[in-house]
Specification:
Two copies of one chain form a homodimer.
Chain A: E1 6-11, H1 17-29, E2 33-38, E3 44-46, E4 52-54, E5 57-58, H2 59-62, H3 64-68, H4 78-88, E6 91-94, H5 100-105, H6 108-119, E7 123-127, H7 131-137, E8 144-145, E9 158-159, E10 164-167, E11 170-173, H8 179-191, H9 193-202
Parallel strand pairs in A: 1-2, 1-6, 2-5, 6-7, 7-11, 8-9
Antiparallel strand pairs in A: 3-4, 10-11
Helix pairs in contact in A: 1-8, 4-6, 6-7, 8-9
Chain lengths: 207, 207
C-alpha cells in the first residue's frame, strides 16, 4: 500500500479563495492528506472576497514555539520545532491573495519553513503573489518559476509566463485563473502524471 | 451609477468547493453582491472535500415559510415568500457536489425557486451535477445546456459537451474543472462580455 502523502497549506487572512480551496479540493481528490493551517491565531480564516473558512489546524497545534510568536519573529530554539513540521509533511503550499501574500512574506515562521522544506528537497508550492514569499526565502535563485505579473523580480531566475511551472521541488503559478493547473501540477509531482490526468478528466478540465 | 446586481447561491452540505467558491469569488470581483444561502438550517456548510465555510444567510433569514419547512416540502402560502426572494435577487446559482446536488434536486423549496426565477426571466445557473435540479424543475426543456456526464437526460434538450452553455436566462456547466468558465459566463450575462474579459485577464485565465 502506498504511504499516505501529507501536505500543509499555510494561510493568513486575505487569502485568495479559489487558489487555496481548489488546491485543497484537488489534492484531497488525489488522496493526499491536506491540512490547512491558520497563521492568524484564529481557526476561522477570512478570504479576500469575504468567504470565511475553517482551518484544519492552528500553527500552535503543530509548533509550540511558533504558537508563542505572535509577531511572526522566529526565536531561538524554534528551528527544532520547524524540523518536526518538515518531518511530518511532504511539502507546503502558499495561496495568494492580499493581504495574505505579504503577511506570509513578512512572517519569519513562514520564510524559515520555506527554507527548511527546501533544504530537505520537499515540495514548496506558491501561486499568484505568494511566490514573493519564496523569493524572500531565497529559494527561487536560478530556478524556472512564475508568479502574478510584477510580484517577483526576474533577476537571478528563469521567469516564465506559463500557467504553472515545476522546477525540481518548486512549483509556482500565476493567479486565480490558473488554480486548477497549479493544483494539478502539485498532484502530478506528488502522485505522478497519471493521477493528475485522472483528476483532470474527472473534473472535466480540458476534456 | 449602475444599480447593484445581486445573486443568491443555494447550498446544501456536500457542495463542491471549487465550483461554489470560484463563482462567489469571481462574481464579487465583478462587483456583483453574492449571497451564499445555507439550506441546511446551519450557518456553517460542509463541502464534499472536507472544507467548512460560513454561509452569508440561512434560508429562514429570507423566507419565513421556508424556515419552517425542514423537510424541504413547500407548504401553502410559501410561494408568496418565494416571490419576495425572486424580487430581491437578479438570479440564483446552484453548485454541484454530492450529496448537495441531489439534496437540492429533492428540496421542493429549491425546485419552486428555480421555476419562480425562470418565470421572471431571471438568471438560473447550475454546474456539474446541479443541472439535474433544473431538469427536475422542467426549465431545461428545449434548451441548449450541459452538465457533468450522465447527470441529466439529453431528451428534450440540446445537450452540448461545452465547458459552459448560456441559453437565454439559463447557464449550465460541467464540473470543478470548468468552474472559472462557469463563473465568467455568469459575469458575462450579468455585467457584459467586457467585464468578463477584464476579470479573466486579471486572474490570468487564458492570458
Amino acid at each position: 500500500m502506498d504511504q499516505l502523502i501529507k501536505m500543509i497549506m499555510f494561510v493568513h487572512d486575505g487569502f485568495e479563495e479559489a487558489e487555496a480551496l481548489t488546491a485543497v479540493d484537488l489534492l484531497r481528490r488525489a488522496g493526499v492528506k491536506t491540512d490547512v493551517c491558520s497563521m492568524t491565531g484564529n481557526t476561522v480564516i477570512k478570504g479576500s472576497h469575504g468567504i470565511s473558512v475553517f482551518a484544519d489546524l492552528e500553527f500552535s497545534d503543530i509548533c509550540d514555539a511558533g504558537g508563542k510568536m505572535e509577531s511572526g519573529a522566529v526565536e531561538e530554539g524554534a528551528l527544532a520545532d520547524f524540523s518536526a513540521i518538515t518531518d511530518s509533511y511532504d511539502g507546503m503550499i502558499l495561496p495568494g491573495g492580499q493581504p495574505n501574500s505579504f503577511s506570509l512574506r513578512d512572517d519569519e515562521r513562514i520564510t524559515e519553513l520555506v527554507k527548511a522544506f527546501d533544504r530537505k528537497g520537499k515540495l514548496v508550492a506558491a501561486i499568484c503573489a505568494a511566490p514573493c514569499v519564496l523569493e524572500r526565502a531565497g529559494v527561487l535563485d536560478g530556478k524556472r518559476c512564475t508568479s502574478y505579473p510584477g510580484m517577483i523580480s526576474p533577476d537571478n531566475k528563469i521567469y516564465l509566463e506559463e500557467t504553472a511551472v515545476t522546477d525540481g521541488n518548486i512549483i509556482t503559478s500565476r493567479g486565480a485563473g490558473t488554480s486548477v493547473e497549479f493544483a494539478l501540477a502539485i498532484v502530478g509531482k506528488l502522485c505522478g502524471a497519471a493521477k493528475a490526468d485522472q483528476i483532470a478528466t474527472r473534473i472535466m478540465f480540458r476534456s
